[in-house]
Amino acid sequence: MAKHIFITGGVVSSLGKGLTSAAIGLLLERRGLKITIQKLDPYINVDPGTMSPFQHGEVYVTDDGAETDLDLGHYERFTNAILTKDSNFTTGKIYSTVIANERRGKYLGKTVQVIPHITNEIKSAIKKPVERNTDVAITEIGGTVGDIESLPFLEAIRQMRLELGPENVLFIHLTLIPYLRASGEMKTKPTQHSVGKLREIGIQPDILICRTEKPLSEDLKYKLSLFCNVPKKFVIEEQDVSHSIYEVPLVLVEQKVDELILKQFNIKRNGRDLKDWRRMIEIIKHPKHTMEIAVVGKYLELQDAYKSIYEALTHGGIANHCRLQIKRINAEDIEKSGAEKYLKNMPGLLVPGGFGQRGVEGKIQAIEYARINQIPFFGICLGMQCAVIEFARNVCGLKDAHSTEFSRETNHPVIDLMASQRDIKDLGGTMRLGSYQCHLKKDSAAYRAYQQEIILERHRHRFEFNNNYREQFTKKGLRLSGICPKNNLVEIVELTEHPWFVGVQFHPEFKSKPIAPHPLFRDFIKSALSKQSAMGDC
Ligand code: GLN
After folding, report:
1. DSSP 441-474
2. Is the dihedral of CA 519, 28, 122, 207 positive or negative?
3. What ligand 1 atom has the least distance to the C-alpha of 431?
4. Which residues have a Cβ under 8 Å from the Cβ of 359 and sit 6 or more positions away?
5. Residue 403 is inside which H or E element, if any?
6. Sign of the torsion angle spanned by Cα atoms 45, 134, 9, 23
């Protein structure tokens, strides 16, 4: 039977519960255990697919096409767990199932209630991703203890401990120990309250992980132990890391969190192997090169909106022994002041995915600048579509070329809605989503990166390269280097006369890991490094 770890958060949101869950997953895997990892989100949207990036940050997409919380990105970057539609449940998703069941008469005339019907559905959601050979299932509960919305989730995990026994269920509570500069003190009271709240609903945390700016003194640990009813050695300090989020597992290892968990579960395993992980951290801390990379987008004030893009860029840097400084440029600023002002000294440009008209012309101008000035360019989803529009307008002379997402009247709809999308009315879960095969042309930058002819990448879009323009564009020097065999869609475009200019309709950033950087990000950074040294020579 699989063991369960539940991770809750207290005091404030954005404590890094997702990262901590992922780091624990990694440590258990490195002990040879098979894990699954899942997130439960208390909001009522069925999934985050319809939410604005300003509300929710990036929407992460799994191989099977689920639009999910961005914490799943951390899980995949840190671990080898296979994530699916069952790896993220929201209150909305749970309620839709219960209401559909009620309409079908499945509850045999009973009054349908939060307890037991909603909590039963939550428990079955928790068990869903747990396969027969899973050793440990990690479940992160979104939100902060004390929220009204998360109560049914907490009630469900309380019941699970009762049903499966304390030897099979472990509660970890992540909390904040604030440092008050004025008095020079670290405060345990918010944690005491948060644990108090959990105990009120019948959950006694087994392990307390304390996020902190400064080290916790032994006295403070003792105080936390006493007031929170957690043995002192189970009070773990998770101090802010200096260089990278990828250091978090090493912080936890130092305090033997994995050993504590195994002991609690009575699982016997030998030592862990983190050599490759430590090597990767060494590169992050002591890189041979540093370089700026421009990202032209529109949700730039928000670190989370392009989360996986920034992470994949970092991985591309790691593959090249290079620390990247990401220069976030607002596409609308380029519209106002021109691309040169922002891109003149940039060795590489990435234009990420996006929706809606705002900033599109700025992105197109930035791409034109990169094309003409031979600056390595990586376009992702909308970024690729903008590259096609730019090529159509400025190389092929199709002056009003556009995507029909932005101009229904254009004479040259070089990016157009897929036929299968035309009659769709619902916005949620209806895009071209998840993993599709793509065949690569041998003589291409894409093939040189992947070193294989058939690849699988994840999608999230409604619009596509318009096949009517294939011949015209190819003649003018656009190489269509990746095609989806299933429906003959153009997935990758490249410029023949350029050191590295690649636009992809899919989202490669979702499959990059710090110890397995994505080949396209690796090659993009490699080519930007060459550009940087060439610029230095000028
Ligand atoms: N808005 C574009 C489309 O729907 C691109 C989407 C994206 O960049 N993810 O096709």
Report:
1. PSSSHHHHHH-SSEEEEEEEESEEE-GGGHHHHH
2. negative
3. 4
4. 297, 298, 330, 331, 332, 335
5. strand 402-403
6. negative
pLDDT in tens, 374-420: 999 999 999 999 999 999 999 999 999 999 999 999 999 999 998 77
Tell how far the Cα of 431 is from the centroid of ligand 1, in angstroms: 9
Strand ranges, E, within 70-141: 88-90, 136-141
pLDDT in tens, 132-187: 789 999 999 999 999 999 999 999 999 999 999 999 999 999 999 999 999 889 99
Per-residue confidence band for 51, with pLDDT thresholds at 50, 70 and 90: confident
Instruction: Work out the number of other CB atoms within 10 angstroms of the CB of residue 295.
Output: 21
- Helix, strand, coil distribution of the chain in percent, nearest 5: 40, 25, 35
Of all protein residues, the one whose alpha carbon is nearest to atom 8 of ligand 1 is 353
In three-state secondary structure terms, 1 is coil
- Distance in Å, CA 380 to ligand 1 centroid: 9
Type of residue numbered 38: Q
User: Where does residue 171 fall: left (phi above 0), alpha (psi -120 to 50 degrees), or beta otherwise?
Assistant: beta
